[in-house]
Every structure is written in C-alpha cells, then in structure tokens.
Amino acid sequence: MSHHGKLREHKACESCGHYVEKRFCPECGQENVETRQPFHYLFTVSIEDFVHYDSRFWKTILYLLFYPAKLTKVYLSGRRNLYVPPVTLYIFISFITFFLPTILPNHSDGLKKDMKEKVETSINQENATEEQKSKDNMQIHVKGKSIDTSGLNKDKLEERIKHDFPKTVFLYMPVFAFWLWLVHSKKKWYYFDHGIYTLHYFSFILLSILLYIVLEWIYSDFGLERFRWIKVPNAIFSIVFFCYLIYYFFHSHRLMYRERKAISRLICTFLFIVNTICMTVFLTSYLLIEVFITDPELFKKVMSAIKGM
User: Fold this and answer.
1) Residues 231 and 206 in one domain
2) Which residues constitute the domain of residue 18?
C-alpha cells in the first residue's frame, strides 16, 4: 500500500468506523488520511491498487455508467475502499479504449479486398493510379486555399495521433477542472474536489466511447448494415448515445454541487460552451504539433496560410 497523504486526526475509519491506531485500518485496510489533499495527490497514489477483477471493479463500472456523480460523492466522503480509485479507473479505461480498436478482428477485410481487386482489373491501370492518388491525398484547406500534402507520411501521422491522443485528453483535464473551480464557491469546494469529478466524468466519456466502438464494430464487421430494417435503430441509438452524454454532464453536475436546477443548468450551459471552444483550440494545437513533428515543411505551409488569413 502507498504512504501518501496527511494522516487524519480522527482515529475512526471513514469506511467502516473501526478504530485506527496507526495509518491503516486493521478492519478494512483503508489508509486513514485526510479526505481532501493537494491536487498532486491524485497522481502520487500507488498503481499497486490497479484494477482487481472482483465485485469492486464491476460495481465501479456500473455506477460510473448509470449513477452520475455517485462515485465522486462517495470518494469525497472518505469511503474510498469501496470502489476503484479515480486515477486508476481513468488509466485503465483510457488504455482499453485506445488499445481495443487496434486488436478487434475485421472479418470484412477479405470481402472488401476481393471486391477491390475485381474493380481494379475492370478499369484502365493509368486511370486507377490517378484515382488512387486522388483518394490518398489528404486535403487541408485554410480559408478556401488548398495546401499540397503529397509529401506527408500519413501512416506516421496517424500512428502518432493514436499514440499521443490519450495523453492530450489527460492534459486537458486540469483545464476542465479549472473552469469548475472558477464558477463554484472556493470555500465550499477545493480544486481537488473538481479534479475527482473531472476524472470520473472523463472516465465515463471514454467508457461510453469504448462501448460505442464495440457496438459499431459489431454492426459493420458482421455486415448488419445490409439489413435495411436495422439502419433506423442504429441511427436512433447514435442520437440517444449523444444525448445521454450531454444529459449525464448536466445531471451529474447538479447532483455533485447540489445547486438549484435552474442555476445548475445555467452554469452547465456556460461550461459546455467554454469547454467546447477550449477543447477545439486544444485539439487544433495538438494536431498542428503532430503535423510539425511528422512533416515540418507542411507545418510551415499551414502556418503561412493561417498568418495570411
């Protein structure tokens, strides 16, 4: 077990109420530290408690998906031995979300390959080459001006984006927590509290995306799109999925901060707009950095076009 965090003066365990003589509760094993710590405490907790495949893990996943803000409230109340720790949960879900799509088998690859070969043999080779070049060219437009990307190593850029995107999302979380800290009472809520809420909310988003990826994989890889009747349910599911992401944020925010519904909705609307703008700027900057690393010459062309706007 880790030895991080300031010890509590009270000797009653927050989880089970048992008397704690030293640092760890002899009854349940929870560390008897202050429920509110400096923000860096989130990232110094030992990975030793990484996900155990027991009831605690599955209960955490269930609550994360269908009980907005419950995990955050339980964690801040001091009952931290009941569920997977926030940082551990985020790291695990982030890893699975970005790793699983790379190993999912594609049963339709063989069929698509055969069809492609038949098409290519039925057309002129020269026209096919030109058409392929046109398809392969990634188009970048700045204020209506097209920028030549023929020299860009697209495979390398795609690989870098897949590799670094989880880090980018992780780096944005303190910004998300900052906006929460800015619009709420500094006396009632610490930045630490907003950080816990942010970790749980982003874990929920990633887990939802993971489930969506798996369902879409089943839909496309097994050829379900050829059935007309299933297209409508699939479209409805996509809409419901998107709406639930928005609802989750508004509902979890109100439950977390215990504000009146009208005030909570007003704050959430502001936060949603601000974070959409900030995330767009953040991701755009991230993509420019990736282009700069992959192809410095292309980066110069893009920046020149932006400056000329």
Assistant:
1) yes
2) 1-34
